Structure formats: structure tokens, C-alpha cells
Amino acid sequence: MPHHTFSKLAEKFGPIIYLRLGQVPTVVVSSPKLARLILKIHDHVFSNRPRLVSAQYLSFNCSDVTFSSYGPYWRQVRKICVTELLSSKRVSSFQLVRDQEVNRLLNTLSTRSGSEVNVSELFFSLANDVLCRVAFGRRFTECVGSSDEGKKRHLAAVLTEAQELFAGMGVGDFFPEWEWIHSVSGYKRKLTKNLEELSRVCDEIIEDHLNSNSNSGGNKEDFVDVLLRVQKQDNLEVPITDDNLKALVLDMFVAGTDTTAATLEWTMTELAKHPELMKQAQQEVRTVAGQTGGKVVDESHLQHLHLIKSAIKETLRLHPPVPLLVPRESMDECILDGYKIPAKTRVLVNAYAIGRDPNSWDNPLQYNPQRFEDSSVDVKGRDFRFLPFGGGRRGCPGYTFGLATVEIALARLLFHFDWELRRGYSTDDVDVSEIFGLSTRKRTPLALVPTMNKELWG
Ligand code: HEM
């Protein structure tokens, strides 16, 4: 795992390391002080992204928010993303989608009460379904395509392949001068094929939206509706082409699914390893919901669930889903804490190492949500000891959206079910090793035994 290797190197050589990864000059930083220099003081120098091979294809020539180069186009699409797609008003407007999808998850669990369940798989389906409905207006596993059954393709198949291709760093990303590597490795062929499929699936979804023509603004718009509306505005600094629109809507899906699911997966993993905390968090949600007399937890309860919110933060400290943030590239030469960083250097911020730094955190390896209670440290990237969503101009614009799903899902999982490890397993047996992907997930899926609390099942 690169973030582990870089953490070990930082322990040995200090918090700023220069490496040549293949042909790419790379700097990795692992301290709050250096992160502040990159994400705040010299943010304008480090706000570019490298043109990764996968993004050149699957982000329609890097025209999404995540991988577009710093400049007028990125500024415009970032603004659309922040004010139109991921604003707090928009996030609230998707409450019904979260509600329905979390309830579907609970119903599935209720049919398996008392038996062992692969909850990781269910959490990934939840995140995929929420993001798919919000972005494209349909569920992940729904078909797209002509009415001819044989020609219908599962959205799931195309999007899953895109997620996998994004996650698998191509060897060519480290040898940008040797383009032939992509052809020899077969990577280019896979990317081209997936891009064709993605494009076709998106065309069909856009056409459906145009034909149904039911949305003229307001609360029920999905991301495709919003972008089709914005595309028509005549005050755009840079026009948004159909391919740009596809890149943007796919970006929301890809950036939001694995990260959200991984946060839920790691939080349940840590709570399963700490049954006392699990009980306290459960007590909290049952008491808070009890005060409003009902058998349901809704989003109005979340503001009172301090322990649950702290548990999620503590999870993000120890298991940031994007441990090295998204790579940056310096646009000019810059002096960083006395070191000269040339232009076009790839820069990685090791949020994983920073979250576990003994100079910043007491008992850094201990899972202790209480450390966030009565603490001013938030997730917004203003405290450089805690950077699960990065920071500065390129910080994550989707954190409210992601946390809204994780919080309501976790609250309801704890409210309606008691959770135990599978028979014969102790807390020490819960594996916390990781696999590298689009986000850092648990190597072995989390298997738990839910028992439905019948009194709290409405
Ligand atoms: C718990 C869930 C999430 C985590 C942990 C997370 C984490 C991150 C991180 C670390 C970055 C890189 C920031 C940097 O370079 O400083 C990022 C960027 C981004 N995230 Fe998230 N994210 C989450 C959810 C979401 C969601 C739900 C969406 C959208 C629906 C989203 C959209 C984006 C976009 C568009 C960027 C690129 C921003 C830019 O380059 O201007 N994220 N995210």
C-alpha cells in the first residue's frame, strides 16, 4: 500500500520526501505544517492535477471537476458543482432518495436477522444506488438501452468497469513519455471500450431526460437535469459540451460511491471491534429517537447524535478513504519549507500518516471517538491534522453529501439492529488490512450478524 510505504519512509527521512516514480518527479508530504503550506499558503501553485491516463479517457479528456486542469474551465465546473449539484439545499432535496435506499438496506437485513451477512457488499450497493439515483435518476442495477431485451445493458456493468479502470493505476501514469506502454499492456483497449460503452449509456440517459422533459428546475431535479439546464444558460464563460456534461455526471458518481461506502464499512468495522462504543452509540440513537416518541430515525435526529458523528470522524482519521488525497501537480517553482519544488512536480499529501501522527494526536492508533467531542476540529480542511476531504481550492466539494448518507445509514443500522461478530470470532479477529482501489477498502469484507429489534421495527 503506497500510503503505508510513504509513512514508513517519512518516519525514517522526515515529513518531506522526493522520489522519482518511474519518470515522474514526486514529492510526498506527511506533516500538518507542510500540508498547510500546500493546501493553504501556496494553494494557487499546487491546484493543478496531473493528466492521469484513466482520466484522459473516462473523464472525457479530463473535463470533469476532479481531473480538469486548473484554469477557467475548472473554475466554472467547480462553481456549478458547488452551487448547483452539491449545495446544502440540493443535498437536502435528496433526503427522500437516502431515506428510501437506507430503508431498502434495512429490509434486506431484516430478512437475514440472526444470520451472518456480508455488510460490506450491502454498503457498496447502498452507495451505488444513492449516487445513481441522484446523478442519473435511476437505480444502479436498472437496465438502459433499447426496448429490445437483448440490447439492454446494465448500468451496473458499465459503471463497475469504469470504477475498476479508474482504480487501477496504469503503469503508463509513471512513464508518461512512453505512450506505447498503454497499447502493449492492453490498458488502452480496455479504456477505449469502456469509454464507448459509457458514452452510449450516457447518451441514452440524456435522451430519456430530454424526452421526459418533466423538469423545469426545483427540488426533484437529478444531476443530469441540472446540467442540461445549466448547459443552456447563455452566461457561461466556457460552453459545456455534451461530453463535458457526461464527464461531470460520471465524476459525481465515481467520486462519491466508493468513498461513502468505505466510510460506512470502516465505521462499522471499528464499532464491531469496540462493542462498548457500539452499545453507547446505539443507546444514543435510541434515546434521541425515543424523545420524539417514534419508531423511526430521520435526518432531524442527526444533529443530536454526537457520539455517532464523532465515531465517523474518528474513522476518517484512522481510515481516510483517499489516503494520499487526489494527486496535485505544481504549476510553478515553489520553495516549500526551504526545499525547492520545481514546476510540474507531482505532489501527494499523506492524510493517512498525518491522521496517525503522534505529534498531533494522543495515542494515535487508539480508536477513541471521544477525542472529537468538544473539539473544534472539523472535516472542512481547516485543521491540517485532519484532512479526510483534503483542503484548499481542490478540497472535496461533496463532503456534506457523503456524510449525509453515512450518518443516516449508521443511525438506522444501530437503531433497528443489534450487531454481533460471527460465531467463534473475537474482536481481535476483525481484520483491518486494506486493499488499494478507488478508495481504501477493507481487504476482507466485513461479516456481521444483525439481530432485528422487533420493538423498534415500525
Ligand atoms: C466520505 C466520502 C468522501 C470522501 C472521504 C472524499 C474525499 C475526497 C478527497 C480526499 C478529495 C481530494 C481533495 C484534495 O485534493 O484536496 C476529493 C475530491 C473530490 N470529491 Fe470527494 N469525498 C467524498 C465524497 C464525495 C461525494 C459524495 C462527491 C460528489 C457526489 C465528491 C466529489 C468530489 C469531487 C468532484 C472532487 C474533486 C474536487 C476538485 O478537484 O476540485 N466527493 N474527495
UniProtKB/TrEMBL annotation:
The lineage of its organism: Eukaryota, Viridiplantae, Streptophyta, Embryophyta, Tracheophyta. Belongs to the cytochrome P450 family. Pfam families: p450. It comes from Hibiscus sabdariffa. Keywords: Heme, Iron, Metal-binding, Monooxygenase, Oxidoreductase. Its cofactor is heme. This is Uncharacterized protein. SUPFAM superfamilies: Cytochrome P450. Gene3D superfamilies: Cytochrome P450 (1.10.630.10).
